[in-house]
Every structure is written in structure tokens, then in C-alpha cells.
Design brief:
Helix content is 12%, strand content 36%. By secondary structure, the protein is mainly β. Helix 1 packs across helix 6 and helix 2 crosses helix 6.
Length: 522
């Protein structure tokens, strides 16, 4: 359901910075530049372990849906995703030629996955760009037991270094001029692979693509990225022509995941070796900022990013995560103010990986918002709005007996001029304990919608287990003592950028009395 997918994506978008009310975008803008390797990249909407959407809406498409024809949209890719990691597109039919000299490529379709015997039929396909899902290409072929051999010639339009790629599962191999250049085998999911090859314009290169399907989803694509040495200059040029620049950067399933065949700066086998944006993306962002035009950064990413330069220099920053097939429409809704953002960060954005201890032990000290004592770039639970919220009338008991529930309430008011959602968060700190405790931990949250000037009382109940700990005897207990409670639209305890916001935090304390109380465990 596109409507549900769009709503879910809207709620996940986090506004991290909005200097001088850069967002929402003015409705009077005449020309907007949409730039970046994730701007028109459907893979960046999905992350890993995903299905394949039939009609994904990229950020570029979403903004065109929203702004055209009143606003002219200019687009440029600007950079690769990372050094040596290109955005690949299906090779167009006009650059494929059969042995007979016709446009397209010859496909021999076999009723078995071994490509044995005579083909069930032969046809000319415009290109290799197929997704049959759980079916087969034709009634003559059984599901989950067929194969295809495509043969023909690749005729490049310009000379230079091309990235030739493939996508498919479960098994495929690609040869160019008799050399096997690509292969993929997976029971789980398709994955893009690529190889850089120098090609001459107009020359015919013999191509063979063999595909075998014996189980699972069936999809096969022949992809490429054409040479474009002037990519950065094209992006800067359209930025100079525009009233505002939206640069769409971040990560994708090409870079982060599990046991991936990738080794580039910042990424090793799908793991992160630092938290920075890939250098080519950072360079693109700086070049666009130098044009003097308002710069809005949209991040599509799964794991946290140390976007320090953007936090300092971009006019506005949003993180959309991996927002799904309707992500482009949802991002456009937020950028234009048709949806007031209320997402909150589900992870901490650190200033650098150097703020984290090495991963050679399993202690939690210094990790996650609960045990991190430094100053993050943006903290867990952080997010801005186009309106403002005030907190008052925090009510909580001064004393409770260990083992009793704790009732907390607070009044939240929309103090701004437009309607918006607030995510009311309750954080708890055990001020003194016999075993190590988190600096603070989230123990409740509620999303509410308020009209301008409207107020609502939000209530939480802390159950005994939420005040408990595991003591040095490996028993879950509640220890008498002081507990701090903070309620607001973000974490307490930060200053500077990490505390900038459109919402408040109110705090109080509870004295837990009585003897040590043993909490029943299930």
C-alpha cells in the first residue's frame, strides 16, 4: 500500500539542522538543483535484506512529483557513491547488437538450469533487464528450472573507462571478448558487481551472458556506468543556475551490509572502518557549498555518519534512513513542508569513530547513548520540527516504596505556529547503584499531534522492573536511593549543537525507599 509506505517513511525522517528556517522550501522557487549519487538511486531507498519494489520513488522522482511544473528541476549525479563504486544502469538497447546486426541481444531460452540440449525458443531481447520474481520468462519454461544464454555485441558510444556490471540471482556469468569478467552466485539475494574496462567508441565487443535459475527469485540485468570525467563540473554548473541545491548523499546496500565483497576507504566486507561520508561525496558537497547557494543535505543511510562538515556548513540536514519504495515522495513532503518532520534518531551520530572504544571486548562502557559520556554530533532521540514545543507541570511522586509502580505526567504544548507531532521521551538515571548503570536510559515514549497552541497531558507508568538492576549476586533487584527522571522531546544533558532543538526537557527526582526489593523474573 503506497499510502501506508509513504506515511511510514514520513515518520522516519529526522530533521537534524535547519539554519535560518531554510526548510521548508519556499513555494516560489523557480529552479532547484537535485544532485548526488543517491538522488536517483532506488537501491539507496532499501538497505539490505529487502524485496525488490516494482515502482520505487527516488528522491529525484519525488521532488519532480511535488514541484514540477511550477519549479524547474535540474539533475546531476555529481559523484560516484564511493571510489570505484558506481551507480549502474541497464545497458540501453541501442548499444547492443546481435550477430545479424539487429538492435538488441539474442537470447537462447532453455527448459533446464544447465543450458543443455536445444533451447525451447530463441528471441531477440532489447536489453538484459529482467525480474521474473518467482515465475519464469515464458510458459514454455518451468519455474525454478530454466536457463538463458544471451549473445551479441556491446558497442560503446564514447571511448573511456566503463564500469560493466551485473545484477541477478541465483547464478550468472558474463564474458566480454572471451574473458569472464563477472560472476555471481547467491541463494539469498541479488547484488551488483562491476568491473572497470577501457572501451573504444564504435568498436564491437563480443558479449556472452549466461543465467541459470534452479530456485528462488529470478532476475538478471546487464548494467554499466558510462565514462563521465566532467561529472563534478556539471553538478556545480547546475547548482549555480538554481535557487537552492538539494544534495542527496549517504550509503546504500552497495556499501554496508553483511559479508560483502567490498574493500574501499571506510568499508571492509560491509563493515565500517570509519564513520565519514565517502570522500568523493564530501568533495561534491564542498564544491556545491562554494557556489553560495542554499545547500540542503539529504542523507539516505542505515548506520550513523560523522557528517561534521555538513553539520557546520550546510544550511539544512535531514536523515531519511532507508525509507523504502515511497521514500522519495516522503522526503519531498518534508522538504516542502507538506509534512512536519517528527522523526528521532534511533542511533547516536558520533563526531568520529575515534570517540568509540575498540571492538576487542564486549563491555558497554563508551558505547551507545546509554554509556557514551562524550559529546556526540547528534544524540540518540534527537530531531527538529518546523514548530516548537514547551513542557510544564511535570508531576511525579517524591517518594515511592521499592516495588511500587511510579506514575509520571507532563503537559506538552505546541508553542509554534503550525501543527506538528512531538515524540515525548522519558529517560531514567539511577544516581547510585552497586553495579554499573547506564548514564541514562529511555524508559518510555509517546508520539502526539498538537495544533498551534494546543496542549496535552502525557502520562507514563514506570513498572518496578524498569527501576531494577542486576546486582553482584546476579539477582535482579531494586535498590533504595535517588532516581532522576527527564521528560522531553530529546535526551537531557547536552550543550551546543547536540542540544539545539525545537523542544524542551524537564527534570525531577524520585526517592525509592524501603529495603532492597527482589524483582520476579520470567
Amino acid at each position: 500500500n503506497n499510502s501506508l509506505a509513504r506515511t511510514a517513511a514520513q515518520k522516519s525522517i529526522v530533521l537534524l539542522k535547519n539554519d535560518n528556517n531554510t526548510l521548508p522550501l519556499s513555494k516560489t522557487l523557480k529552479k532547484v538543483a537535485i544532485i548526488g549519487p543517491n538522488a536517483d538511486n532506488w537501491e539507496a531507498l532499501l538497505g539490505n535484506y529487502n524485496g525488490i519494489p516494482k515502482n520505487p520513488v527516488t528522491v529525484l522522482r519525488g521532488l519532480k512529483n511535488k514541484l514540477e511544473p511550477k519549479t524547474e528541476i535540474l539533475y546531476a549525479e555529481g559523484s560516484d557513491l564511493a571510489d570505484g563504486i558506481h551507480n549502474l544502469q541497464p545497458v540501453p538497447s541501442c548499444y547492443l547488437v546481435t550477430a545479424e546486426g539487429k538492435q538488441g541481444i539474442t537470447g537462447e531460452y532453455f527448459a533446464n538450469a544447465e543450458l543443455k540440449g536445444e533451447p525451447a525458443f530463441i528471441r531477440t531481447d532489447d536489453q538484459i533487464n529482467f525480474y521474473w520474481e518467482s515465475g519464469s520468462p515464458a510458459p514454455e519454461l518451468p519455474d525454478d528450472n530454466f536457463g538463458i544464454r544471451w549473445t551479441g555485441y556491446l558497442v560503446p558510444p564514447v571511448s573511456g573507462t566503463y564500469a560493466i556490471g551485473c545484477w541477478g540471482m541465483p547464478w550468472l556469468e558474463v564474458w566480454l571478448e572471451g574473458e569472464k569478467i563477472l560472476a555471481h552466485q547467491s541463494e539469498h539475494h541479488a547484488f551488483q558487481k562491476e568491473k572497470s574496462i577501457a572501451l573504444e567508441a564504435g568498436k564491437k565487443y563480443k558479449l556472452v551472458y549466461e543465467y541459470k535459475n534452479g530456485f528462488g527469485d529470478a532476475d538478471a540485468k546487464l548494467l554499466w556506468s558510462m565514462p563521465d570525467p566532467d561529472r563534478l563540473n556539471k553538478a556545480v554548473d547546475i547548482a549555480r543556475q538554481s535557487d537552492a541545491v538539494i544534495v542527496v548523499l549517504g550509503l546504500s546496500q552497495r556499501l554496508e551490509g553483511e559479508e560483502m565483497p567490498i574493500q574501499v576507504d571506510g568499508f571492509s566486507g560491509g563493515d565500517r572502518t570509519h564513520l565519514n561520508l565517502p570522500k568523493v561525496q564530501e568533495d561534491l558537497m564542498k564544491a556545491l557549498k562554494a557556489t553560495g547557494k542554499p545547500l540542503i543535505l539529504v542523507l539516505l543511510n542505515g548506520s550513523a555518519l560523522s557528517v561534521n562538515w555538513a553539520a557546520e556548513h550546510a544550511d539544512a540536514v535531514i536523515s531519511a534512513g532507508y525509507p523504502g519504495q515511497q521514500g522519495g515522495n516522503a522526503v519531498a513532503d518534508v522538504l516542502t513542508g507538506d509534512y512536519n518532520p517528527a522523526g528521532r534518531l534511533p542511533v547516536t551520530y558520533y563526531q568520529s569513530v575515534e570517540q568509540l572504544p575498540p571492538f576487542d571486548e564486549y563491555e558497554m562502557k563508551g558505547r551507545t547513548y546509554r554509556y557514551f559520556s562524550g559529546t556526540p554530533l547528534f544524540p540518540f532521540g534527537f530531531g527538529l520540527s518546523y514548530t516548537t514545543f514547551g513542557y510544564s507541570d511535570l508531576l511525579l511522586p517524591g517518594k515511592v516504596v521499592a516495588g511500587e509502580p511510579v506514575h509520571v505526567s507532563v503537559k506538552v504544548t505546541n508553542t509554534g505556529k503550525i501543527a506538528g507531532e512531538e515524540v515525548v521521551q522519558l529517560y531514567l538515571t539511577d544516581e547510585k547503584a552497586s553495579t554499573p548503570r547506564p548514564i541514562r536510559q529511555l524508559e518510555g515514549f509517546e508520539r502526539i499531534m498538537l495544533k498551534p497552541g494546543e496542549s496535552k497531558v502525557v502520562e507514563f507508568t514506570l513498572e518496578p522492573r524498569q527501576l531494577s538492576l542486576i546486582n553482584d549476586k546476579n539477582t535482579r533487584v531494586i535498590e533504595p536511593g535517588w532516581f532522576s527522571v527527564a521528560v522531553g522531546g530529546k535526551q537531557p544533558g547536552f550543550t551546543g549543537r547536540a542540544d539545539a532543538g525545537t523542544t524542551q526537557v524537564v527534570t525531577g527526582r524520585i526517592m525509592v525507599t524501603g529495603r532492597v526489593f527482589q524483582v520476579a523474573t520470567k
